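re: that chain from earlier
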Amino acid sequence: MKKLVLFSLSFVLSLQTVFSQISDTTVFEAPELPAYPLLNLCQAERHSGWTVDSVRNCGELNLMRLISQNIQYPEAARTGNIQGTVVLRLKIEKEGRASQIEVIKDIGGGCGPEILRVVRSLDSLGLRWAPATNAGQAVRSYKILPFKFKLTEALPYVLTAAGDTVYTSMDRQPEFQGGLEALYAYLLNNTTYPKAYADSCKAGVIECSLLVRPNGKVSIQEQLDFNNLGFDFQFSAIQLLNRTEGKWQPATYKEQAVPTTTTVRVLFKSDKAGCKTSNEQFDKAMLLADEAAILNESGDTAGAIKKFSEALVLDPKNTELLYYRGTLYFNSEQKEAACQDYNQIKTLLGYTWFEQVRRLLCGW
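^ sequence. v structure.
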């Protein structure tokens, strides 16, 4: 005798809901409200009076800017004088993840694969989307991203915020009289360790961007105090490099002397007897960092990260080492670890020299 199986109405309705969700594969081409990228830089709570449209416009603008900063114009397209617009189509799921990224219009020369590479990299690094909505409900949708490749003749110089012309293309770099060995000897023999801090055993590097003009005059354009040594050390580095005025052979472009910048690193270590151990730790950390750089150049990212970590055990507040390790984490798609290092730099210095990247990746 067959048994009669009865199902409650609520059970039947729940099954209908499940089957409906499973069979709901609709992807909207033109939803009421389109999907838009969620970027930390564009959070509404960070900007008084912003609306959803403000957040959307900010997200789309900065996404295109981020793509532009990471695009490498393919050599085949450059030599073939290929220009035009590549169009990507992304399928944005209800939870905000791009499940499908494809080129629907290419112009050749490797442009399509290049834009695809960049957008897929951003997705793997955590780029998420506010999903499209219809009647107030999140829906799957397609998002179209056009990107224009345009060949432009790069100028050999840039203009700084201070109004200085700085050449980036040169026939010859600026050179200290006597060459690098003479520069190293000058720095070694003339760096003044601030007397007030002689017993502090502070050790570190201050990196300066020195503008060398055609007439031999110099000025400091930027300064990075990687070890947070402080104002007295920074001022000492500025004084030291200002005294190199007239000691430089300027850079040339098309056989004409031109203004450009060169990087000079000023090392501070106290010569007090009680600072011997801290100086040795600093030196060992720098040697480990050099080993890390060699490993990275050879393609051993994991080994390089390990060496930087060993260096940071000896010099845990060295923001330069934190930056290099964080960047290796970033390049190997370890976003959380990268942000820990980047945010630590912000904590130690109160600022970062790569703030736009840090905010886009890690938030405020």
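The CA atoms of residues 5 and 293 lie 71 Å apart.
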